[in-house]
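ASSEMBLY PREDICTION REQUEST
Request ID: AP-0331
Submitted by: J.K., bench scientist
Number of chains: two
Total residues: 615
Priority: normal
Notes: Please return the full assembly, not individual chains.
Input sequences:
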Amino acid sequence: MRRQVPLVLCFLFGITMTIQYYVPSRFSEDLKSEVLNWGLIIGPFALVLAIATLVRLHYTRIQRRSENWPYSIVVFVGLIVMAVVGTVQGFTSQGISGGPFEWIFNNIQVPMDATMFALLAFFIASAAYRAFRARTLEATLLLVAALLVMFGNAPIGDLIWQKISPVRPNLPSEVRQWILDNPNLSSRRAIIMGISLGAISQSLRIILGIERSYLGGGE
Amino acid sequence: MIQRFRDVGLPIGLALCWIILFSASTAWGQPAPPTHVEAVDTPNDTGNSITVRWQISPDDKAGAGVDGKMNVVGYHILRSDDPAGPFQLLQEVAGGITEFRDDDGMAGSPAYYYRVRAVDGAGETADSETVGPVKATSEWFHTGKVYILIAVLLYSAILVYCIYHARRGREFFVRRIAGLEAVDEAIGRATEMGRPILYTLGLGGISNIATIASLNILGEVAKRTAEYETPLRVPCYDPIVMNVVREVVRSSYSDAGRPDAYSEDNVFFITDSQFAYAAAVDGIMIREKPAAIFYQGHFYAESLILAETGNSVGAIQIAGTDSDAQLPFFITACDYTLIGEELFAASAYLSREPLIMGSLKGQDYGKALVLAALLVGTVLEIFGVHWVSTFFQAAS
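STATUS: Completed
Returned structure:
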């Protein structure tokens, strides 16, 4: 029974929402927004459970003095400060827009997010170094294509080319665009087609109750 | 001399002034109205709009080449529920525009009549003929999606056919997928080294198809970690996903006969902030040095931040995502990457359940069908036959 009810619900909602995609009527649109609202209602309940796991995890880390445990105190400070400031400010006429709540967000979280994002530049450099080592034919092709694209992307690429040859002054940009529009785009489309077929296949398996691993596997 | 001017020049001057004024009044009179006005119920909508179309006035400035005065600068759309009027102004649109969608208060509305009024630079107007009545109604089938329906039905029929044959005991050959063959190797390595396995489902919510695929893979991975008694750590980005993950992992441990080995503390929520999540997972990697890391699900820019950190701690990394923009990063930084549909084939491949394997075969037949359509379509296009490309354009 614990397994059958979710399977029946999955089948009914799966079929209903598939049909809904092809029916543009008002009733159909209302049904869709209603079902999406149910999903939104589940969210806050799940969030309470999620925060409880976070609190328990970091409490345990502090209690056991695990490696780098002082960072868990930072988690609690952040959690409590934002919750208190947001709640208190939420009761004012101003709401949570502006004031200390937004100030903390803009001046602490946003810069830290930006810092993490900035690390990506260095990670791209280290990943590119590994990928572009010309040890095999494929890696060599990748290296050549990457160099051509980089040369075409940088404004200095066309400038250098113009000094070398007056014929077709924008050749590096044209080559770059050709690589992006032809080999690159066609292979991306092939991947997207595969993903679409896989997604339909998986949806059908779930709707028909053949794929049950998401319920925990087994019978 | 003065007398002669009065006798001849004055009448000529007055005549010239009259000619100029007459010409000006002809040029600045009413513009020509728009033509071929029609109002139709907008197809394939929820019954909330009527579309009004017209051909521009011969005097429209946008009508280059039309033999008119070129002084119409815009149109007024007028609406009434009575053909005799009065007509109310609905909207003003610029010259050159030939279509307007009226979605103003259509729910339960009566049938409407429309006029389109041409307006010139001097404010002179000319109304078209009245068209209507038209009532906004909703349809029960979206005719624009008929090709998608045909394609989905065809593909579904192939899948059901393969599943049916799998149910009857037919065995299908499925090509080897290196990334999935390596799952046991990765778990075995972690067991030998006495280190945990880290599994991340990316940033997708529970409604994301890649997240569901990832949950299916996680179920199989959790069974094996339960058998080997290897710790499995699953940091989550989405609260709902976290709760589902707990159920999946708990059930897998029960199915493996090791419910006692399951610990709720190993499946935990971190944050729903993208880079804070990346920082936290990187921290776990640095501190705990997992022997194997699985990245399965939907990822964004954090993919390389995670995969490079995992690479730096020497873990075996197996990635799989439907985010085509992140695939190059995973291919570069991970040992194995499930590309595209391999992510959706993974649970079938790992579980080896005949029915699921049948659908996997159907997936391959579907790909073959698309490939054949591409080849046939390319050849037909070369010879000027366009129906295959028309089908795919309409279905996209």
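REVIEWER COMMENTS: The longest strand of chain B covers residues 72-80.
SIGN-OFF: pending second reviewer
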